[in-house]
Amino acid sequence: MPLLEVIGLKHVFHRGSKPPVYAVNDVSFTVDAGETLALIGESGSGKSTVGRLVLGLLHSTSGQVIFGGRPMKSLSKSELRRLRAKLQVVFQEPFESLNPRMRVGAIVEEPLRIHTSMSAQERRSRVVETLERVGLGEQYLDRFPRQLSGGQQQRVGIARAIVTRPSLVVLDEPTSSLDVSVRAQTLQLLGELQRELGIGYVFISHDIHTVSHFSHRVAVMYLGMIVETGPTREVLSNPRHPYTRALLSAALSLDPNEKRPHFPLRGEIPSPTQLPTGCPLTGRCPVEQPECGIAPVAHQPVGEGHTAACINLEGRPSPTDMSTSSVGAGGAR
Amino acid sequence: MSDDLLTVSGLKTEFNGNLVVHGVGFRIRRGRAVGLVGETGSGKSVTVRSILGLVRPPGRVVEGSAIFEGRDLLKLSQRELRKIRGARIGFVAQNPFGALNPILPIKKQFYNALRAHRRISSKEAYQLALEGLSSVGVAGPERVLNGYAHELSGGMAQRVVIALVMSLDPTLLVADEPTTALDLTVQRQVLELIDGLIREKNRSMLLITHDLSVVAQYCQDIVVMRAGEVVETGTVKDVFANPTHPYTRQLLKASADSPDALREESHATT
Amino acid sequence: MSKTTTAPARRNWLAEPGAKGMVVGGGILLCMLACAFFLPLPYDPTEPDPTSTLLPPSGTHWFGTDVNGFDVFSRVIAAGRRDMPLALGGAFASLVVGAAIGLVISRKGKFGERAMRVLDAFQSFPLIVLSVTIVSFSGNAIQNVIYAILIINVPRFIRLVRSEALALRESRYIEAAHAIGARPARVMFRHMLPNVIDVCLVQVSLAAANAVIVIAALNFLGVGVSPPEPTWGSMIRDGGANVALGQWWIATAPGIAVFTTVAALNLLADGIQRRFSDE
């Protein structure tokens, strides 16, 4: 039984008089124990919303999130709260996610106070053990978040997330706000913890290369839908969906002599209040065909465990009248 | 005409009595793009603002020279600088919405910008704006011109700013982290755009960034700054192949080691 | 922004920003409170001495005497015994009431918005006029002075707590608190409240300063005064006429007391604000 199963997840944000935002549009995936699934997407892809839905911080407008075999919607509020001992999160901005008035020890201890009946002594020793495990020591117990560096603060966030030995942790861009020099260490720590504790990760990121060393499988999201998914190595070396190809080609080489081909998308990402009919990339795709805008596209198998939602996988060039049109002055927020 | 468009030497700037730029010097030659790199706190932004005359109290340019087209920018009055800023030196900042007036229609902003430097009717300005927007790949330019800044996405707004800046036809374009705030797929598009516009008329560019891969791909020369000083300069090909200063080597290594830079291979954890 | 300092061993408290304000302001306040309650009064403030009326300040009567022969110094101190706790108590009461209401109406949705509009309407009255009116209709009792202080100060706390609560609800660590499974009560008391408290303390100090003035003003008008109990406000009124006659000490002494209290409270508020504004 998979640790996490997401089936047909959809989420719409209703904003009163303003048009509704279709943030998540039919997302499905599974995560097994001890495995990492990366959700890759730019802003507006819906990846963060999916993260919150998986955590139960939001209730989806339709579709199911099944954790440990139990659908989240069937849980009462207090059952959902108790579930959090097993389902945790690490946020993007380390400083923002820690209560500035609480000491490190108290921050990491709190989940234990909420979910376990450990004595103060037992809690303390578990907290110290966890802090040491993330590379901080007992001397950090009495410090305040503002006294720590960004990397250290993120370690506190990680410690808080794993102190109850969860089975699944949602990592929401955990290294994006960190200095480049610190990112590698943080990812290494997360990898070690996964191997030791058998935690499953949902790793949300805007950059596929951050997760290249780290995730087993990847799902590329665009406008609330998964356009390509498969084993990370496979998708990185053999991207098939035009959006994945555009995303990968956006990365620049550090070698001045190497010029990578640019696989550009036309126009701008449309507003999530008005989704294109058919394939979400309609209007921007460099190999768009007339049929693309008609009906939603199902995933086609393109390799071992690797699928892409595209009807033009061979990359037939667009008919000339298509390539000159592009999304108008849209992309408004 | 000399090969140098802008020569900066011995630039010292202080804030509240503390020197933040300690004698910086470098050259920008005609038709070449120079990447000014450094981490936060290196003083790269202050350096550029000093050159452009945009440093206000409690900051002060203490000494140095910045010879641009034969004149020392640091010795000119604000009035004379205003004629140069825009018309001869264009500036694109990180946040496009900071450069666009939220309450004026875009076409008015083009008009104001052009009008500040020459006599032009609003009809002519509109035409130029239209052409400018098309050249930066904005589809539906009429709608954009008649609309407002908040209706644009980040990438679109940055294109509008670039069109605005380029409509004045400057010889030097100064870009301060122009794509950092944009989505990945848009970043490369905007960089390619800027690159094309520079080459088109053999303009020069000073590109300030912390991202070495951007410099590798879009600049010919590089200036490395750290703690208010220049630690290394040279052509991009030379410096990347053989960095002499340890800090440069450190920067290159950190960029190469960062997971973001591991482009070729991916080993999933087992 | 995070800093890479290691934990400081012992912080130099005086070097902290705002510390001087807190120390000076708080110190003056404590001094005055101590005097009010513990200083043995040289003379009984309610026993007039008809033989020594209108004496200027001297070695025996530090602030002189008034028209009834009361020792002004003793009366000023005695009045402080009532006026200061009243002001502080009124300010804290305003905090408690205002914070409670503010938290309740900080939930998202139309109810909160509508409640704020009602508050706007309420605050558009000149509140001191409103409170004086209400108090003068309900009589001279001391509770009415407290009601006046509440009427004037509760709105400020409602607004403050509500806006802080709204801002906090959006903050990441509050979301994190929910994410670790904390119950709403825990989120409110363990996470939201401590982060709101310092701003509230500043406002309590300011509210108390305001209350001192309100009390003095009301007492000046005769509200809440029962002679021969001394209050600063009534002393200022009674001594006001004498100033023209050259007997400046009768009104000036309580005036200085009011001024000093208010200044101390303001200093304290400023100090707290400076101390906590960067955190």
Features:
heterotrimer, B: 270 residues, alpha/beta, six-stranded mixed β-sheet, 11 helices, disordered C terminus, C: 279 residues, MetI-like fold, 9 helices, disordered N terminus
Structure, explained:
- The complex is a heterotrimer of chains A (333), B (270) and C (279).
- With 333 residues, chain A is an alpha/beta fold.
- In chain A, 27% of the residues lie in helices and 22% in strands.
- In chain A, strands 6-7-8-3-9-10-12-11 form an eight-stranded mixed sheet. Chain A has a four-stranded antiparallel sheet with strand order 2-1-4-5, covered by helices on one side.
- In chain A, a hairpin with a 2-residue loop joins strand 1 and strand 2 (18-31).
- Chain B is globular, with a radius of gyration of 19 Å.
- A six-stranded mixed sheet of chain B has the order 6-7-8-3-9-10, with helices on both faces. Chain B has a four-stranded antiparallel sheet with strand order 2-1-4-5, with helices on one face.
- The N and C termini of chain C lie close together (10 Å).
- By secondary structure, chain C is mainly α.
- Mean pLDDT of chain C is 81; it is low at 1-10.
- Chain C has helices at residues 19-38, 72-104, 110-123, 127-138, 142-169, 172-179, 184-220, 232-244, 249-276.
- Chains in contact: A-B, A-C.
- Chain A binds chain C through residues 55, 57, 81-85, 88-89, 91, 93-102, 110-111, 114-115, 139, 142-143, 145-150, 152-153, 157, 160, and chain C through 1-7, 171-173, 175-183, 186, 190-191, 194-195, 279.
